[in-house]
Amino acid sequence: MASQHLILSGDIALNPGPDKVENKNATAVKRNKALKCPSGEKAVQINHKRFLCEVCYDQFHAKCTVDGIRPIPGYATEFRHREDIKGGGVVVYIKEDIKYKRRLDIEKLHPDLEHLWLEVPGRNIHSKALVGVMYRSIRMLSTAKWLESLESLLSQLNVAWDGMLILTGDMNIDMLQAENSLTKQYQCILDVFGLHQVIEKPTRVTKSSKTLIDHLITNFPQRIADTGIIPCSIVSDHDGIYASINVRVPRFEARHKYIRDIMSLNESLFIEDFSTLPLSVIAYSDDPDEQLESLNSLFVECLERHAPLRRVRVTRPPAPWMKSANIQTLQKERDHLRHKAHKSDADNGVWTAFRLVRNSLKSAIRSARKALIEKAMSSNKSRNIWRVIHRILKPNPKPLRVDLDELNTHFSTTAERTFEASVVSLSDLTCLTDNLPEQSSNGDQFNLKPVTQEDVFKCIRALRSDCSTGVDNIPARFVKLVAEHLACPLTSIINKCISNAYFPKLWKIARVSPIPKVENLTSNDQLRPISILPVLSKLFEKLVAGQMSEFAERAALLPDRISGFRKGHSTTSVLLGIRDDIRHAMKKREITLMFLVDFSKAFDTICFKSTI
Known about the structure:
This protein folds into 3 domains: 222 residues, Endonuclease/exonuclease/phosphatase (Deoxyribonuclease I, Chain A), CATH 3.60.10; 256 residues, no CATH class; 74 residues, no CATH class. The protein is of the alpha+beta class and 612 residues long. α6 runs antiparallel to α15, α7 runs antiparallel to α8 and α13 packs across α15. It has 18 helices and 19 strands. The chain is globular and about 95 Å long. It has a 6-stranded mixed beta sheet. Strands 1-15-14 form a 3-stranded antiparallel beta sheet, with no helix packed on it. This is Reverse transcriptase domain-containing protein. InterPro entries: DNA/RNA_pol_sf (IPR043502), Endo/exonu/phosph_ase_sf (IPR036691), RT_dom (IPR000477). Pfam families: RVT_1.
């Protein structure tokens, strides 16, 4: 493992000792003398302890320092003095072979904080780090103001910095006292910005107490290979803290997935082949399940002839910008010139041409990637933005390694584990509807109506082509291609379901995709189950939902302020309504109270009996 060790200091410093060390008795004798350096300076006393001078191997003398800071051979020093109070400050020692840049702009954002910031570029863009050193002293700032300034600073860094963040120093907040009010406030700020304090052992130990007040905070705890403390009683009553950080780029682990082979797909031939399928056999059965099974079988067989399902090995994250014709042409030209250049008799002209094409290819790839991301980020649809973020900007480098049966049991028993709810039988679910009074005949009753072939055709054409594929292995893209020929048999199946008040069994089966909530999984609770139903079932649901919504709007069954899943409404409608309520209350000199509730496992624990 390639690791980068950073030794950081707050108001304390982990200073290596001199090459020549005096024994205990010699030191005791010298304490009784007025020792002098060749420069004639008296010994400087810090923290009631004396340091050996590197110049004369006596005590630490004033002229052997730079601005009062002890220099260490082989290390660069960055120091920030206290501006208004004598003494103190923060200091960083960093090895001379590590490149860095002092970030005075960050320090100026909150000059009241006692902090110092360095930007370490690392070996590549993935290993860059923003390193901060901080000291909390009530002489400089009250606790309340310090917490407020810290939260504001972290908020600004959270927006402006996209790499690894490391913040360390003496915060004078004991992380071992988890129930302490100050510790809770401090931890809450860290949680808001996804930061983790990784030091676990006490850093200040006395005869009567143990406290963890020296912290190391980061936004990438998974890259921390090791942490610990180094006793340094000769320097301070605090122990030094250290962290070993893995700066290697996480490799994208190979995985397998099933995709449709569309490289040789001829859409016209596929549509023509589908139009000749014996779809009329569906009419020979009155059972919706049998009808749907016949349709799926014919559809998949035709699909396999033109775009067979393949199991492929994915070795790198998705890069859609690489499909550009210009990039592919440059790649072929680069490979050709590289082959010629590697021949023993290749002249300098071939090498020059190879380098020019190679550099042009790199520039084209960067431009194409930037253009794709900018286009997605400027979209007014949040769906497109998040797709780019999750699939391209931050793909998961590791495939999931979980037991599928265990995971299925975990997801299917969420209600039982959360509320100790028991499984509701079908008779209990239907007893409520069976005992409902008969509907009145005044015209205000709701009944599902048969759908027309035109309704089904329009619904198919309105499908998104990038919809996920269900267990029937029928992608939305191919459903849209044959919409004209599929509308008739699908209309027959849907109307049969409506007349029988039945939902086909095949459309109730979902493919569950577990989405990780965190990068490093430790339990199944950190997976979010996403149920993906067959594309054709979504058409049925959409047609039924359209009739229900139309009836609810026509009969004015929903209050005006209910905006969920309603045409012409959005979260903006809700926010505008809340704003108007608050403004009216303020004009009347009334007090406004607003309760915001977020139910845990709301959809997983819904009471089906009450819903029906």
